[in-house]
Structures are given as C-alpha cells and as structure tokens.
Amino acid sequence: MKYTLSPVGLWVALGLGAFLLASLEVHGQPTADPPAAKDDATGQAAADTHETQPAPARTEEYGYVTERNVGYRPDLAETDAYAAERCVLDLYYPAARPVVDRKFPTVVWFHGGGLRNGNKWVPQPLKLEGVAVVAVNYRLYPAVKSPVYIEDAAAAVAWTLDHIADYGGDPDAVYVAGHSAGGYLTSMVGLDPRWLEPHGHHPDQLAGLVPYSGHAITHFTVREERGIDGKQPIVDDLAPLYHVRPDAPPLVLITGDRDLELLGRYEENAYLFRMMKVAGHERTELHELDGHNHTEMVAPAHTILKKFIRANEKQRKRIDSELIDEDAR
Questions:
Q1: Which tens digit of pLDDT belongs to each residue from 40-54?
Q2: pLDDT, tens digit, for every residue of 199-234?
Q3: Which CATH number belongs to the domain containing residue 185 in this structure?
Q4: What residues make up the domain containing 116?
Q5: Is 132 in contact with 92 (CB distance < 8 Å)?
Q6: What burial letters (b/e) apply to 147-166, b meaning 16+ CB within 10 Å?
C-alpha cells in the first residue's frame, strides 16, 4: 500500500523534523566516557589526535571543578607547535578547599591507544570520589619516537607534584594510573627514576602505581620504530621489567582474563609481579579479571584502583599519626 502526504501534511512533517533536529543538537551531547582507545598491533585510530586544542577553560559541576587544556611543558610550547597541542592536561578536583590535614589524593591518568592514538579523558567512575584526576595528553608516534612520550608522561607527573597543592591536593598522595599504553607509561615513569630526575623529582615520591593491562616488556610501538616484529618480545631499558627494584612505590598490576587479553599481556605482568617479589618489593599486587578482555577490564579495574587508594591513604595517615605521637613523647 502506498502512502502520500498532502501539502499541509508535508509542511507539518518538515516542521516536526526541524524541531527534533534542534532538540538533538541541544540535548544529544554524550554524557558517558569515551570508549577506551585501542592498543593493538594494528594501531587502529581511536580518535583524531591532531585536532587543535581549544583554549583553557574552567567549569564547575556537582562541587567539582574541571580546568581544561592546562599546559605542562611551557619549555617546549613556544617553539614546538605539536608539543603545544598535545602537552596539555585536564584537572578535575573538589571545589571546596579541604582543611589543612585533609588534603585530597590525586590520580594522574594516562589514556591508551598504542602510543599512537587517543585523547585525554577523566574516567567517570573516578568522579565524585573525593579525589582529583589529572587526565593527560602526550605526543604520539609517528610524529615523535621513543622516548618522547615517556618524557611527556614524566613532565605531567612532575607538574602534578609541583602544583596540586595549589588546588588543595596532597603532593604526598599522588597516584599514577593508565590503561594499556597508559599503563606502560605509568610503569616506566614509576619504576625508572631517570625520567622524573630532570624535573627534580624521584618516583619514590609517588603514593602508588596502578597500570591497567600495560606492557611489561618493551612496548610494541617502540619495537616497531626499530623494525622489530610485534610478536618478538624484547626486554631492554625501555621495558618496565628492566627496572624491577625493591624500593619502588606500591605497585598494583591489573590485567584482563589471560585467555581474552592481548597476546601475552597477562603473562608479562605475572612475570613483572614475580620479579618484583624476587627483588624484595613487598607491596606488589597482581589482579587478573576473569571473563574480561583488554577493553572490558577497565571498568572493574577502576574499582580496584579506588579501593587501593582508600586503603593506602588510611595506612599513610595511621603511620603519620604514629610518627606524630612518637615525636610528642
């Protein structure tokens, strides 16, 4: 059966369509987090990483402030346009200034994407939790090569250590975390002291490291830069495994199911866990999230991160309190 519209019906339909389009433009903005960037050997783009960043902006919602596109490498921004574009971070923190003895902890968060794709985002499960989140962009392959992205990651962590107190945060409670390539950057900055040292810091100042499904061997993009096949494992000075040591910050390793993860990712982390223990590092944990693949593991990993921060902050405050009592005696 055929249906036809009269001239009047046609005008009504057009008007209704325009109204719905306008409604979508106003109300159809996404509210969920962007999907986790892919971190596989294909290097499939998860987002356009070369778009011009907007000017810094400040917004406030539900008692939390977000300051966007804060530059963390002013030493490069004036002479390197790509660094000015990518070396920026978003800072999400409680609006109310805490009392002196209750400054909030901070998570520095590195996105994934194989060191070649992806953009900063504040994970939704970390919002409204009494913590600040520093979501970091960094320069990407092939525009740059190793170790530039590690240097950028270290500069962002150093910026946080230097400035978070200005916003009410505790510089002694800075945690570093990230997914996939972001997990690799987390481990490199937190285990190898040479990246923070040029900024006058040491990774032992960090309260904890929580890499989500990050490489423990040399990253596949670093291997690709050298013409090494992605299935050929390498452990050199750009591998977290190379830097096992007993005095590193607390380390929480999280992966998806070994049978669903990217090839060898669980086994790499299991070996890092074992070798940290052999080296004498007492506070290394390993979590395998059964039934979750490389992308699906992110949501439950956030829960582990939050529990770890709460437990670690309680322990830190208990130790500080005992030290104060001892000094008083």
A1: 433 333 333 334 556
A2: 999 999 999 999 999 999 999 999 999 999 999 999
A3: 3.40.50.1820
A4: 58-328
A5: yes
A6: bbbbbbbbbbbbbbbeebee
